[in-house]
Amino acid sequence: MKKILFLLTIAVAFVLSSCDKESLGVSKVTTYATMTLNGASTIFWQKGTPYIDQECEALEGTTDLSADVVVENNVDVSTMGIYSVNYSVENSDGFWAFKSRKVIVCDLTAPLNGVYTSNLVRTAGTATAARGPFSVVVYGLGNNEYYIDDLIGGWYNYGNSYGPAYAGPGVVKVNPDNSVTLVSAEAWTWGPCYFTSAGATVNPVTKTWILNTSGAGIAAYSWLVTLTNPIK
């Protein structure tokens, strides 16, 4: 009996010892860095002007890690477009935190630049459906032309979470009578977008765009896209 108890005691001690070794460090608490952008998360930048980043601050608790922030960006000020500045920092336990900023290189004097709120109504035959609000970027190219990064207002990009491959961007021209003409549209998953016979307009005072859009390959659908409340 004593032998059995002795063996049982050894077995229990072994299990407890193994548990201690396996659980070592499992419950350790780490403090992830908190990252804060200096300035806006989306900024418009004049083409041809050297890009000066507003940087990003980082704190691990009360410890300032701002000097350790790694910055990566693909901003090309010689070419108009939408670029990203990415920030990352590692805390004392080796865990990374991330933040990003969108930089839009454009004609900064264009009065209709902005990140717009998009609300949509889709028509398919006699059926209609509404979605929004989403965000759509509009930036000036000069000569009253603008790039709109989603001519169907984010219906698939954001509404279906399909991503930017389903955005259907294009270039438009604002005419003297505030009608809007489609200059070009980029090919996307179901073919480029176009304006229906109802066309498109913009109110330069309220900065409200009305786009009546369809697309090659999805001609059975049309969208009434309303863009409002731009943030520049």
Walkthrough of the structure:
The protein folds into two domains: 34-106, Immunoglobulin-like (Sandwich); 114-231, Lipocalin (Beta Barrel), CATH 2.40.128. The model is unreliable at 1-21 (pLDDT under 50). With 232 residues, the chain is mostly beta strands. Helix content is 9%, strand content 49%. The radius of gyration is 27 Å and the shape is globular. The strands form three sheets. The protein has an eight-stranded antiparallel β-sheet with strand order 12-11-10-9-8-15-14-13, with no helix packed on it. The chain is built from one helix and 15 strands.
Fold blueprint:
Elements: H1 2-23, E1 34-37, E2 42-46, E3 56-60, E4 63-64, E5 70-73, E6 81-90, E7 96-106, E8 114-124, E9 127-142, E10 145-148, E11 170-174, E12 180-185, E13 193-203, E14 208-215, E15 221-231
Parallel strand pairs: 2-7
Antiparallel strand pairs: 1-3, 3-4, 5-6, 6-7, 8-9, 8-15, 9-10, 10-11, 11-12, 13-14, 14-15
Name its key features.
disordered N terminus, Immunoglobulin-like, 8-stranded antiparallel beta sheet, 2 domains, Lipocalin, mainly beta, 1 helix, single chain, 15 strands, 232 residues, 4-stranded mixed beta sheet
* Second CATH tier, the architecture of the largest domain: Beta Barrel
Task: Report the sheet-strand fraction.
Answer: over 45%
- Strand order within the widest beta sheet: 12-11-10-9-8-15-14-13
Distinct helical segment count: 1
CATH class of the largest domain: Mainly Beta
**Overall 3D geometry?**
globular
Radius of gyration: 27 Å
Distance between the termini: 84 Å
- Residue-averaged pLDDT, rounded? 88
Which residues sit in consecutive blocks of at least 5 with pLDDT less than 50? 1-21
Tell me the domain tally: 2
CATH topology of the largest domain: Lipocalin
